Task: structure prediction
Amino acid sequence: MSAVPSYEIVIPSASRPKILGAALTSLLARVDVLPKRVLIHDDVVKPEYRNDVRDVAAAICQSQNIPFYFEQHEPPLSHGPSLHCLLAAAKTAYVLYSQDDLFVRRDLPIARALQTMERHSLHQIRFNKRATMEYKMSWRKKEFQFEMPDAPVTLTVADHWYFQTGLWRVARIKPVVDWWVMTSNAFNEHCEIKCNKSMNRDIAEFNHWALATGYELPEQAYLSSDVDVRAAVHKTFIWGPIGTDQFVENLATNPADWRLVRSRGGTGPPEVDSQARGGNEQTHV
Result:
């Protein structure tokens, strides 16, 4: 098998040191090859935690002997500019993007995924927060098989570029983020939607920029929902075939949740996870 490309982890944070600590620990424990660096940008939403976020992340990285990059802004920049800072600081061709509240539940095949991306010029492979379904509303997903030297890899095409735990080709996403930061004051929240509208040929000004720079877009906007176009142009995929079990889940539903216990619906008190196996297990981490 070919060498594994280098990657870095990038995480935007928002003053949630306890949740970030659990998320980062789970991430580093579940990758099969460690990153070259961990990059964290913290928006100081709660000034009382400004030092805790850095200290928690630094201690975790030092325990693994991983170089650590940290940037912080007070007042907060919000998601778009934070992502811009992280991608500007990245030094590798690929990054593993995650968030400060995404907890990794099982092993991530980072080496295999990176080799597949490198060999087949894929732009994104994400690791699902729930089992991969065949349909997303009326949009039907499709499996694609990619030949590799030892054995083929099966991936499921994704309907858009997801800001979830997943591997990103920096050269594909960074120009979109840079364009938004340079041309608009609106790139603060809902950044995933704005990036995807650009990639889907839905923003005329971006289309002109893409034509001038050679950034590949679908021929027409309506083609962005075609699964074969997504595979050939967008190159965004989910790891594994349809039915692959979840890899990650959210630790918190809002910034005030510090308990690291999450109720996912159903009946019972808040500390009970009614969707866990057995229906009444707690999700302390």
Observations:
- Residues 17-30 form the longest helix (14 residues).
